[in-house]
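Hello,

Our lab assistant flagged a job as stuck in the queue for most of the afternoon. It eventually completed. Since we weren't sure the result was trustworthy after the delay, we are filing this so someone can double-check. Below is the sequence as submitted and the structure that was eventually returned. Let us know if re-running is recommended.
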Amino acid sequence: VAVWVNQRRSKRIRTLEEQLPLALDIITRSLRAGHPVIAAIQLASTEMTDPVGSEFGLIVDETNFGADLTTALNSFATRTGSDDAKFFAVAVAVQMESGGNLAEILDNLTRVMRSRATLGKRVKALSSEGRSSAYVLSALPACLIGFQLAFNPRYYTDKFADPIFWPTVAMVLGLYFLGWAIMWRIVNFKY
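-- returned structure --
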């Protein structure tokens, strides 16, 4: 159940991060048209689909029930767990304290988010060969043992009584999982 929940959470965060630049574009255009920040966020909440639309709707609801915008944005960033949502919350909070052109700030933030997403896709494409090699190298020992057992079923069972057989099996399994972990670290990295 925990694995399923983590997969669903990761998928929701990915979807949110894909939709967030478009939502920020809507907010930026609304701000340039002269709307206040909360009205721009409300417009984005009605225009966007789930999860960004519902999350922005929660921001609007929190501010309608008395929370200030900074608190609502911080709870949005905490609730979603997205780095891009944290950047958005910090950008608006800094602008509210120090002033400046929020539309321009959000426009630059949108550009950075899209650049990060493009870089992530490039890294994934460039490391795809290493990932496929890791999958093949991980499956190869199990396939070889299965192939050997199919043609000579007693190949390993005759050695069960040998006192060095089980320690050797334990050592080989340990090295196998160590190699698997090293290969996984090589092909999966943060960017």
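-- support follow-up --
The delay was a queue issue, not a problem with the job. The result is valid. The radius of gyration is 26 Å. The mean pLDDT is 90.
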